[in-house]
Amino acid sequence: MDTDVLTARHAVAPSDADPLWWRSAVIYQVYVRSFADGNGDGTGDLAGVRQRLGYLKDLGVDAIWFNPWYPSPMADGGYDVEDYRDIHPEFGTLAEAEALIREALALGIRTIIDVVPNHISDRHEWFRAALAAGPGSPERERFWFHPGKGRNGDEIPTHWVSSFQGETWTRTTNPDGTPGEWYLHMFTPEQPDLNWNHPDVRREHEDILRFWFDRGVAGVRIDSAALLIKDPDLPEVGEKPDHPTEDRDELHDVYRSWRAIADSYPGTRVLVGEIWVPDIERFTKYLRPDEMHTAFNFDFLARPWGAASFRQSIEQTLAAHAPVGAPSTWVLSNHDVTRPVTRYGREDTAFAFLKKRFGVPTDPELGLHRARAAALLVAALPGSLYIYQGDELGLPEVEDLPLALIQDPMHFRSGGVDPGRDGCRVPLPWTGDRAPFGFGPAGTQTWLPQPAAWSALTVEAQEHDPHSTLNLYRAALRLRRELPGLGDGPLTWVETPDPDTLAFRRGDDFVCVVNTGDSAIDLPAHEEVLLSSSALDDGALPGDSAAWLRARPVTAT
Questions:
Q1: What is the rounded distance in angstroms from the CA atom of residue 497 to the CA atom of residue 197?
Q2: Which of 102, 131, 371, 477 is the most buried (most CB within 10 A)?
């Protein structure tokens, strides 16, 4: 182990001084391809991130979560990993990643990286070796190969449905050109699933965790964390009480071993799960003290706009986390989800992958009002907060990308019906009045085109507007740090007569009020308006708006 790695492993990080930092952290998601381009090739890179660390410091974040930055053929935006111990050459080098981790840490910003344990790239050395070795080989035991059903193996082994729609098995071709075995892929054919019943697979991922913890990362986000283990009998869904591919009990042994590794390092190295499990009780089992620290709360993200819907989600989430002592997490969007400005401007404001279609109308002005209000709502809730890059600028979904430029496999595997996720992955606008808006040097052609209208949404333009969405976020995160009642801790509901109003108290004197209706409402008694997502109307809170208040302290009776 070299000197730099030893230094990173034992560096005094902010997490050493505050071992519970993750319970209240503000975590900013960086999709590297679209954050900032340091070398002018049209693709975001680590050099661009390093140049913009000051922006993230000024925004007020505690940590950066990076989507996969490893070598990858990019069949699924980097979630088809070819090598976990290096950096994609379009993004930079391993040395640059190590420098970024150190530089961010010097600014008080921790680094969280993505791991994708369910599958790897079909170009990974393990899978290439498995194909070369042939049926029955030890190399193939690391995956899910199957001879197929029927007389000649022509029938697919199971009819499991892919997360990206379509079939989940692809047949190989033998060296002589005849049909070979089938292999499992719960996502695209370029992402073969690993067999987590094999000790090599478990050992390899434990070594990957150590590799990055040694380099100073403060945590890992675990992609598709509930999908790793499959029933070796390969039953169809419904043939057994347990689901054959989702949320299997054996998963908890995996994460207990990962937690032990994380806890062996100085400071607090966190495990964050991406867990799409609808049963709240099953969901919180992953958050027991010897497993993950936190997990994404997708229930709130998917809820339709409305006080009753939001309150139900908040109450259920807090109640489910309480028995295991884990903090909740709150997020409005990510690299997979339609941006809030667009989503909240639609007639159907809920989110579901299978409902995404071209041409769904939206009211961008209404959507922006609601997205700003939702930002204040989630920033005031107990627990940690995730912000997807660009949401702090109020960016809308880009829904008119040329079909020839769409890259997302969800679009192609839907037969072209689903527009895919590229619309929330368009490169960020930083400065100037024309593309690439400071994303890269002037004249750079970005990997996805930026709308001309984004000239009004650049960081530069918004910094000079005191009422901009960027300055709203900055003010909210500053207050979140300063006010002792915010972050992790209790919440008390403030009952209101209006069914479209949501209000709650944090600490002794902080109240958040959200008006999800159309008409203005009178604010409850207060001493000061700390922040509001819309200008007040003669002291009243307009519809689709939120306000933070300094209220009169609660007195003991």
A1: 55
A2: 371
Give the neighbor-by-neighbor strand order of the sheet with 26-30.
Answer: 294-295, 270-273, 219-222, 110-115, 63-66, 26-30, 384-388, 329-331
Amino acid 8: pLDDT: 52
Amino acid identity, position 467: H
The CA distance from 255 to 270, in Å, is 12
Strands (E) across 226-351 are located at: 270-273, 294-295, 329-331
pLDDT on residue 557: 47
- Name 427's bridge partners: none
Q: Which two tokens stand for residue 173?
A: 């071709």
- What does the angle CA 371 – CA 377 – CA 380 come to, to the nearest 5 degrees? 140
Pairing mode, if any, of strands 270-273 and 179-184?
Answer: unpaired
Sheet containing 169-173: order of strands: 145-146, 179-184, 169-173
Query: Which tokens is 478 given?
Result: 């500053």
| Token pair for 432 | 């100037």
H helix and E strand count, the chain = 16, 18
| pTM for the model | 0.94
Q: Which of 294, 378, 272 is nearest to 23 (CA)?
A: 294
For the chain, residues with pLDDT lower than 50 are 3, 6-7, 10-12, 15, 557
- In 3D space, the residue among 116, 41, 112 whose CA is nearest the CA of residue 83 turns out to be 116
Percentage of the chain surpassing pLDDT 70?
96
Torsion of CA 47, 49, 52, 54, to 10 degrees: -110
Angle of the 364-380 helix axis to the 469-482 helix axis, nearest 10? 10
Query: How far, in Å, CA of 209 to CA of 216, rounded?
Result: 11
Q: How far apart are CA 39 and CA 385, in angstroms?
A: 31
